[in-house]
Amino acid sequence: MRNGTAVRTLTLGYAMVFLAGVLVCSPGFGDETQGKYFAKKEYVAKPLPKFAETRARLPAPIYDENPLYVEMYWKTWEMAFRNFYEPAPESGFVSQFIDAAFNQNIFLWDTCFLTMFCNYGHPLVPGIGSLDNFYAKQYDDGEICREINRTTGRDFGQWVNAKHEDLFSRWGKFSVTYVGREVPKPPPKLTLDALNHPIFAWAEFESLRVTGDRDRLKLVYDPLVYYYRALQKYIRQGNGLYITDWASMDNSPRVPHLAKGGTAVDTSSQMVLFANHLAEMADVLGKKEEAAAFRAEAGKLAPLINEKMWNPKRKFYFDLTVDGKQAPVKTVAAYWTLLAGVASEEQADALAAELQNPKSFGRRHRVPTTPADQQGFNPAGGYWRGAVWAPTNTMVIRGLEKYAKDELAREIAMEHLRIVGEVFKTTGTVWENYAPDDAKPGRPAKPDFVGWTGIVPILYFIEYAVGLKPDAVNNRLTWTLASKKRCGCERFRFNGHVATLIAKPADGQPDAAEVTVESDGEFQLTVHRGGKKRDFNVKEGRNRFLLE
């Protein structure tokens, strides 16, 4: 739950988590028990970056086809800079960070998505290092709270299991019933509300894709392993799938069906994704036996999701109630199966078809979190009852790409960018979420939300409109050149390189394009244009290529 929302939208039935307007914070279990697996222990002070001083070094997209996107890009970075922070004294935080732009807390899943657009400003801005502050607050049993006070460094008090009870959801007002397994002991330090969205490792690999920083994997591997094991201990149900209460989708119509220990298709799929990413990390670090073990765990969990959560008649994935029955509610959570590689090709085709069905997820603005053919859908958004959100769209898009459905992925990304741009043109800002059936902010939605909506004007603009996608691990940059007008990016940063890439129509050759690349280092450039693919070896200095 997003706690500021609880006060703003009490009509949705949220629990009140403010007392007399003051956010309750945990007295904690003692800082000495936190951060033992993360090698970074102290913050080394340095000046916080300022937009006016940094702008001239940030990537500068060129997109003559729609200059509004360029304007929105820079406005978004300007708003992002307002949300960069240094650790407060005595907070125990160890790195500068970008804040969720929601309230005085940092949020786990918000921050993971925030890093994804900040990767394009690396190392000029706080980005992936924002996750350091969560690892620094990890308990000795591996638990990490999903919401931590920005100033005190204390876990949000409502999510702390101060009375050492067996796992329960404070917001959901239920104790977890484990079916077919023993109740884990000792009790967790946190409530079920705090233990959701295990996507740290995905964020780390999104960063690696852009920055190429392999050294970071060594730094984060142990904290991630202990976090993964803590989730296995406390939120794995007896059926082998994973429990949640609301998975941050506060008022979704799925929530009542998850009560008391129901298992979630998103949380379960995220654990497959987590295990496979840990295996990849272990490979890089030379931990071959651990890599094999994590792959084996992912290999056992994925078939369970398909066996128990896939409905062959409805051709969709569904959560399970605590008694193991499929919940009737269809939501965007099912698409985590794509990102995790759980779905078969046939199942992926069925999920993709739903995204193109106007009676379901294929609305004017995709992808609504609740589809139009689901009871409870709100065409104005209604928060998680239909609104379109940058994080879930990013998950869907990356999942489609995993199944080589690149055309549909780009279509959805460009649709989201276009509508966010239309709303920016009329309101002058970007919003927390958007309506599925109109070019309007969702109701409710916060303005100036950078915030994870920064993904759209920055990451989507660079990767899907301009078309630049880095693969830093292989020192390769792929450019899908769709625009016929001048486009590109000055000071594009990836794998330690800074390169300016510009494509424009070739003089006297209407069907050809001239590409110039000026780079401070060598890399491989693959250009896709008009159904053709060309590979180039970019050398240090100035390069010129002709695409005919």
Could you characterize the architecture of this molecule?
With 548 residues, this protein is an alpha+beta fold. The protein has a domain at 487-547. Helix content is 32%, strand content 16%. The chain contains 14 helices and 19 strands. The chain has helices at 3-8, 51-54, 67-81, 108-118, 132-135, 200-211, 215-235, 265-284, 288-309, 336-339, 345-355, 390-402, 406-427, 455-466, and strands spanning 18-19, 22-23, 60-63, 84-85, 97-98, 105-107, 147-149, 168-169, 174-175, 310-311, 316-317, 468-471, 476-480, 487-494, 497-506, 509-519, 523-529, 532-538, 541-547. The protein has a 5-stranded antiparallel beta sheet with strand order 3-14-15-16-19. Strands 12-13-17-18 form a 4-stranded mixed beta sheet. A hairpin with a 2-residue loop joins β1 (18-19) and β2 (22-23). α4 (108-118) packs parallel to α6. The termini are far apart.
Q: How many strands, what sense, and barrel or not for the largest sheet?
A: 5 strands, antiparallel
What number is the mean pLDDT?
A: 94
In helices, the fraction of residues equals 25-40%
Shape: globular
Number of H- or I-type helical stretches:
14
Strand content: 15-25%
Largest sheet strand order: 3-14-15-16-19
Termini gap: 53 Å
Unreliable segments (pLDDT under 50, ≥5 consecutive)? Answer: 3-31
What's the total number of strands? 19
